[in-house]
Design a protein that fits this description.
two-stranded parallel sheet, binds pyridoxal-5'-phosphate, binds (2S)-2-hydroxy-3-(4-hydroxyphenyl)propanoic acid, Aspartate Aminotransferase, domain 2, NHTrfase_class1_PyrdxlP-BS, Asp_trans, PyrdxlP-dep_Trfase, alpha/beta, single chain
Length: 396
């Protein structure tokens, strides 16, 4: 039966993790996978999460099936976070939100629904993008192409190229956009540039799919979510996937969501009914634990305040590491200007290091990043940053 089955390639990033775990170098540092670790290099368990979990254990409840679209209070909290508490859109009942298995699950639900809606549409992702975007939309049956994004010479975004690609895309094309903290480059576009993207989406009749996996990791919860308000103000229908993997440090609980902005309450009800079919025919209904934690934190004022503080702590620590990284590279004798690293946002930096340099870092120094030159700055700390910058100095 399986004689002709070919070996599938490993996920380039998760595969690095396996290699890192097998490495016996005591000085090894993992800057590969996008996971935030604290000042001591540990994956944090947020205090707000611990407190919410204690509450949930205290009031231990039986585990019935959840509704197909998830915990109602959770979906509502996701909407308030993404669209803003007082958004008229919510009052008008124009957003269909479902609980999803992580941000990935939100993307996949949206992809499956879009495939039914418009089977011949093409999908455009940024060049480069999170590798799973291509795989996920391809697997959902779409032809996936790219729009220009990273400009290596400029150390920034090739915005003219991006806009030109959108302005020549066929009507109905699905455009996957990173709402903030672009993975892998760390370069985001500015609000005025978003306006131009929105104008192109509107003029060409494109379908915007915003992937928001890092809300709160860039400049703040509101600041990072502002782009959503820009899309809403433009009066277009669009998709947003949400992930709480990073912002709650709940990677393994798989907590996310999908929100679809519709033109009317009636449309929303019909869209929701279709999303529910997609869920039902894939995994029936979502799991309880992670979403219960997130809903509890988001809707309990004291826990909410604690979360915002802890999230700010993660965000500010990353920013501090970006600054320290630039300084320590200089101190290690690197003359190339790395100050662009402080203009990048979120967990990642496209460092500009080449594949051979990344390989040397890995093989000679046990410093693991992605071959593209992407490093996870959220895994730098005061204990490993000296070693990392000195190693980089040696391979440059
Ligand atoms: N989208 C982007 C851009 C990501 O970087 C990630 C990272 O994990 C995801 C989606 C997936 O998030 P999750 O782990 O919640 O599925
Ligand atoms: O880009 C990253 O490192 C994170 C984690 O298939 C990740 O988004 C990487 C690969 C993958 C799933 C998650």
């Amino acid at each position: 039966l399986f004689a002709a089955v070919e070996m599938a390639p490993r996920d380039p990033i998760l595969g690095l993790n396996e290699q890192f775990n097998a490495d016996t170098n005591p000085a090894k540092v993992n800057l590969g996978v996008g996971v935030y670790t604290d000042a001591n290099g540990k994956l944090p368990l947020l205090a707000c999460v611990k407190a919410a979990e204690a509450q949930l254990v205290e009031a231990a409840r039986a585990r019935g099936y959840l509704p197909i679209d998830g915990i109602a209070a959770y979906d509502k909290a996701v909407q308030a976070l993404v669209f803003g508490e007082g958004s008229p859109l919510l009052a008008e009942g124009r957003v269909a939100t479902v609980q999803a298995i992580g941000g990935t699950g939100g993307l996949k639900l949206g992809a499956d629904f879009l495939k039914k809606l418009n089977p011949t549409a093409k999908v455009l992702i940024s060049d480069p993008s999170w590798e799973n975007h291509r795989a996920l939309f391809t697997n959902a049956g779409f032809t996936v192409d790219t729009y220009p994004y990273y400009d290596a010479d400029k150390q920034g975004v090739n915005f003219d190229g991006m806009l030109a690609a959108l302005n020549s895309a066929a009507a109905g094309t699905v455009v996957v956009l990173h709402a903030c903290c672009h993975n892998p480059t760390g370069y985001d576009i500015l609000p005025a540039q978003w306006e131009q993207v929105i104008a192109a989406v509107k003029a060409r009749g494109l379908v915007a799919f915003l992937d928001m996996a890092y809300q709160g990791f860039g400049d703040g919860i509101q600041e990072d979510g502002a782009v959503i308000g820009q899309f809403v103000a433009a009066g277009i229908d669009f998709f947003v996937s949400t992930s709480f993997s990073k912002s709650f440090s709940l990677y393994g609980e798989r907590v996310g969501g999908l929100s679809v902005v519709c033109a009317s309450k009636d449309e929303t009800a019909r869209v929701l009914s279709q999303l529910k079919i997609t869920i039902r025919t894939n995994y029936s209904n979502p799991p309880t634990h992670g979403a219960q934690i997130v809903a509890t934190v988001l809707t309990t004022p004291a826990l909410r305040a604690q979360w915002e503080e802890e999230l700010a702590g993660m965000r500010n620590r990353i920013k501090k590491m970006r600054g320290a990284f630039v300084e320590q590279l200089k101190a290690a004798g690197v003359t190339r200007d790395f100050s662009f690293i402080t203009t990048q946002r979120g967990m990642f930096s496209y460092s500009g290091l080449t594949k051979p340099q990344m390989e040397r870092l890995r093989n000679e120094f046990g410093v693991y990043g992605v071959d593209s030159g992407r490093i996870c700055v959220a895994a730098l700390n005061e204990h490993n940053i000296g070693y990392v910058t000195q190693s980089i100095a040696k391979v440059i």
